[in-house]
Amino acid sequence: MAKNSVIRLDNVWKTYKMGEVDVQALRGLSLEVNDGEFVAIEGPSGSGKSTAMNMIGALDYPSKGSVYLGNHDITKLSESQLAVIRGRKIGFVFQQFNLLANLSAMENVALPMMFQGVSPSKRRERARNLLESVGLGDRLNHRPSELSGGQQQRVAIARALSNNPEVILADEPTGNIDSKTGQAIIALLRGMHREGKTIIMITHDHKLAKFADRIELLKDGVIVGGSKK
Amino acid sequence: MSLKDDFFIVIKNISHRKLRSWLTVLGVVIGVAAIIALVAVGRSLESSIEKEFEDFGSDKITIVAAGGNLPGFGTGLTTKDVDAVKNVKGLEYVEGMLYESGKATHKEESINVFFFAWESDNSKVLFDDFGADFSAGAPFETDSNKIVIGSRVAADLFEKKLSLGSKLEIEDEKFEVAGILEPVGNPDDDSLIYMPMGVARELFDKEDDVSFMFAKVKPGSDIDEIADKITAELKKERSEESFNVITPEQLIEQVGTVLGIIEGVLVGIAGISLIVGSVGIAGSMYTSVIERTRDVGIMKAVGATNNEITAMFLIEAGLMGLVGGIIGVMFGFLIASMIGFAIAQAGFTFLEITVEPWLVLFGLAFALIVGMLSGFFPARQAARLKPVEALRK
C-alpha cells in the first residue's frame, strides 16, 4: 500500500429481514479509500447505496465480512466504542441535513465536540470559525428552521468538520437543494479535499460523481466497475 | 460529555415543548402538593391534640357510662357511683358532672346551648384543672343563680354581647353572669355555660344523674393502679360492661389510632395522585423518545454513546420530577396554610399548621425518584435505538 488506507471494506455482506424474506443489500462489497482521496460511490436507487454508506460510516455492523476504520475492525467494537470512534474519525453530511431543530447553527456545529469532551469555550470558538468558513458568520444563532436548505447543508458541513475528522462522508449532499446551491456545496467539498481531507460521496447522479477523483459504480450490492481521473 | 452539557441539551428539549413539559410537571405538582398538604395537616392535627392532652394533664381519670367514651355520651351513672369511687384511696377528688342542653334567652333572643354543672364547693379547683382561665369575674362558689360563660357565649352566640353582670334566662329562670372564660380554641368548649350542680339538678329535674365523673389522682400515685381500683369499686355496684374508666394515655392512644387511620387514607390518596403523576412523566418521556428518535440517531451518528443518551433522558425525567416537586412543596405548604386558616376561622385556634423539614425533603426526593424511575425505561429504549434505524425515521 503506497498510501494509508482510511477505510477498507472486505467482502462485506449485509442481509436484512423484510418479513419472511431475506434481502441482501450488499453482496461482497470490497472497497478501499486512501488518505486524501475524493471518491464517489455512484449507483441507481436500490443498488445498496444507503447500506454501503452505513457500513462506510460505521453506523451499522456487516452481516459478513470486515470493515476497517483506520486499523480498527468495527465488527470487534462495542456500540459505544464505535460511537466514540465515529464521532472522531468521520464527519457526516446527510441528504436531509439532519440538524437538531432545538439547537442554533453554532450549537449544532458544536455538538460532535461535546461528545468528544471539548471544553465549551473551545467548542464555541471552533464552531464560529467553521461557520464563518462556510459563509454563515452572520447566522450563528439561527435555528435550522430559520435557514434555507443550502444554508442548513452548510451548517451540516461545518458540523462534519468540527472534530477535524479524517473522512467526510457525504450522502447525496445536494439531493434536497436546488442545483445552483448544490454547486456551492460541491465547491465546499472540493475545497475541503484540496486542504487534504478524504471525501467519500454517495450519489445516484453521474454529473455529481464526476467531481470526484475516482468513481466506483455500485450495482446490486457490489462494485461493478469504476473510473479514475 | 459533562453534566452541564447534559443539562444544556435537556433544557433545550424541555423548553422546545413548553406546554407538554408543564402539563407533565403539573401531574407531579398535584401529587406532591397533595402529599405535603395532607400529611402536614394530619401531623399538625395529631401534635395539636397531643398538646391539648398534655395541657390537660396526665393525672386525670374520666369515668363514663358504657356506650361511649367521651364525656356526654351514654347515661346511667348516678351520685351513688360517685360515692363509691370516693372510697378509692389515692384520689385527690372525684366529681360527678352533669352535661345538659337547654334554652338560654338574652334580651329576647333565645338559643340552644349546652350546660356543664359541677359542685360549687370544688368549683375553683375544677376550673383550674380544666385549664379554663378567666378573662373577667370569678368561679361560682355557692349554689346560687350565678353562671360562668365560655368566650363564644359572651361574644358570638347572641346578637347582643354579654358582659359581667349580664342577665340571662335559662329554662325560664333568671341567672347572672359571674365569670367569663378566655377562649380555649375549640368552638364547642367555648360555647359552654357552667353552673352550680345544686341549681342544675333542680333546673333540669335531674335528681341523681351523673353524665360522667372526673377524678384527679394524688401526686406520686400510679394512675393505672388507681384506675383498676376504681373499676373494682364500681363493679361492686354494677356490671363491668356498664361503665368505662379512661386514663389520658388510653385516650391519646385511641385518638392516635383514629388519626393514624385518617392520615393513612390521606397519604394513600396523595400516593395515588403521585402514581398518576409518574405515569404522566413516563408517558411524556415515551412520546418524547419516539418524537426524538431521529435526534437520537443524529446524536449517535456524531458520536454520542448509549450511556450519554440514557443520561440525557434520565436527567430530563428527573428534572421534570424535581421541578414538579419544588412547585408541589410550595403549593402543598400554601394549601396546608389555607386549611389551617379555614380551621382557625371555624374557631379551632388550637391547631397550628407546621410543615416539618423532613416532609419537604421527602417531597423533593420522592418527586426526583419518581421522575427518574418513570424516565428509566424510556431512556433505555432511546439508548438502544440503532443509529441507522433511528436516522431512517
Molecular structure report:
The complex is a heterodimer of chains A (229) and B (393). Chain A is α/β, with parallel strands linked by helices and 229 residues long. Chain A has a single domain, classed as 3-Layer(aba) Sandwich (Rossmann fold), CATH 3.40.50.300. Chain A is built from 7 helices and 10 strands. Chain A has helices at 49-56, 79-89, 105-115, 120-133, 149-161, 179-194, 206-209, and strands at residues 5-18, 21-34, 38-42, 64-69, 72-73, 90-93, 167-171, 198-203, 214-219, 222-228. Chain A has a 6-stranded mixed beta sheet with strand order 6-7-8-3-9-10, with helices on both faces. A 4-stranded antiparallel beta sheet of chain A has the order 2-1-4-5, covered by helices on one side. In chain A, β7 (167-171), α6 and β8 form a beta-alpha-beta unit. The model of chain A has no long low-confidence stretch (mean pLDDT 92). By secondary structure, chain B is of the alpha+beta class. Chain B has a 6-stranded mixed barrel. A two-stranded antiparallel ribbon of chain B has the order 2-10. In chain B, β3 (91-106) and β4 form a beta hairpin. In chain B, α8 (248-291) runs antiparallel to α10 (306-345) and α8 (248-291) runs parallel beside α11. The A-B interface holds A 54, 57, 59-60, 79-80, 83-84, 86-88, 92, 94, 98-103, 107, 111-112, 114-117, 120, 159, 163 and B 1-2, 4-5, 12-13, 16, 294-295, 297-308, 386-388, 391.
